[in-house]
Design brief:
Layout (H helix, E strand, L loop, with lengths): L1 E6 L14 H7 L12 E7 L2 E5 L5 H6 L14 E5 L5 H4 L11 E5 L1 H9 L11 E5 L6 E3 L2 E7 L23 E7 L2 E6 L7 H7 L4 E5 L7 H4 L21 H4 L8 E4 L13 H8 L2 E3 L4 E4 L4 E3 L8
Parallel strand pairs: 3-4, 4-5, 5-6, 10-11, 11-12, 12-13
Antiparallel strand pairs: 1-2, 1-14, 2-3, 7-8, 8-9, 9-10, 14-15
The structure holds D-malate, manganese (II) ion (MN) and zinc ion (ZN).
Pfam families: Lactamase_B_2
Family: Belongs to the PqqB family.
Pathway: Cofactor biosynthesis; pyrroloquinoline quinone biosynthesis
Length: 311
């Protein structure tokens, strides 16, 4: 089962358009220890030459330009079979609008995330007679091409733009999900947003061939310390990497062939090659994803040729 990281950054990408936090500044200044990253999405080869996007980011057009495998294969023919959404955040749904122009594909989402699309008329550009919508229940496997997918409730929250005073962080009813993808006898687990690691998450991940997990922040109060915001990682629905109950500790006893951080915020020092934080996660057996990282579950990783734009 092949997987390509289309965008390894969190919402806003890296560097973020309006930010000169210490890590973004390295990128703006061209420091070779950091690489720019687009926003949160992966592609999985769910059938022979057919790909499912997990999340559709605001950077989807540039991600397609950079990724030969998801470029058009014929006159108005796309290898993109489907888009599966793990929440309704802007960084995960905005790219659906890029996929207008009347090519058939199917959008898979929970009822909560489907309701977000239904409530916003701009998603009507995906004409219903061309783009199918499938509402998926948690814990009920479904097929895309030759793959079997299952959504499970990941502790999370509603999208930022739907937050109210009664916000619950850690809700697992379907506003935020993780996806288990099975194909060719391999299992991939993709969880780009997770407020804390509970027993269900651990059970889903145990024994997987590949885990792609929420690497938004290294420290819970990293955004406050960088002076760019008042919210903690957990308040944003993202468990920090370090610290008590951070993801490094939470997954320490779990058996997974490869563990990869994804959805990495621009403030996170793991973005800096050779930084103490980067070395700390690598020492614990984690990889830090970058755009274009391609993994065949069960094999070694490679970063595919980024110069593959329709030449
Ligand atoms: C998040 O993952 O916390 C969101 O992408 C925040 C946002 O919508 O910018
Ligand atoms: Mn996000
Ligand atoms: Zn920044």
């Amino acid at each position: 089962m092949r997987m390509i990281v289309l965008g390894s950054g969190a919402g806003g990408g890296f560097p973020q358009w309006n930010c000169r936090c210490p890590v973004c500044s390295l990128a703006w200044d061209g420091d070779p220890r950091v690489k720019a990253r687009t926003q949160s999405s992966i592609a999985v080869e769910t059938g022979d030459g057919h790909w499912t996007l997990f999340n559709a980011s605001p950077d989807l057009r540039s991600q397609i330009l950079a990724t030969r495998q998801i470029q058009p294969t014929g006159l108005r023919e796309t290898p993109i079979s489907a888009v599966a959404l793990t929440n309704g955040d802007v960084d995960h749904v905005d790219g659906l609008i890029t996929l207008r122009e009347r090519s058939p594909f199917t959008v898979y989402a929970t009822s909560q995330i489907s309701a977000v699309l239904d409530a916003n008329p701009i998603f009507g550009v995906l004409a219903r007679d061309v783009v199918s919508r499938r509402t998926v229940e948690l814990g009920k496997p479904f097929s895309i091409d030759d793959a079997t997918i299952e959504f499970f409730g990941a502790p999370g929250k509603v999208p930022l733009y739907l937050e109210t005073e009664n916000l619950t962080i850690g809700d697992t009813s379907g506003d935020t999900v993780g996806a288990v993808v099975k194909k060719d006898g391999k299992r991939l687990v993709y969880i780009p947003g997770c407020a804390f690691v509970n027993d269900d998450v651990l059970a889903r991940v145990e024994g997987a061939d590949l885990l792609l997990f929420d690497g938004t922040v290294f420290e819970d109060d990293e955004m406050q310390r960088a002076g760019v915001g008042v919210k903690t990682g957990r308040r944003m629905g993202h468990v920090p990497i370090s610290g008590p109950d951070g993801s490094l500790d939470a997954f320490k006893a779990v058996k997974v062939s490869r563990k990869v951080y994804i959805h990495i915020n621009n403030t996170n020092p793991i973005l800096i090659e050779g930084s103490p934080e980067r070395r700390a996660v690598e020492a614990r057996g984690w990889e830090v994803s970058e755009d274009g990282l391609e993994i065949a579950a069960g094999e070694a990783a490679s970063v595919h040729d980024r110069g593959s734009t329709a030449a």
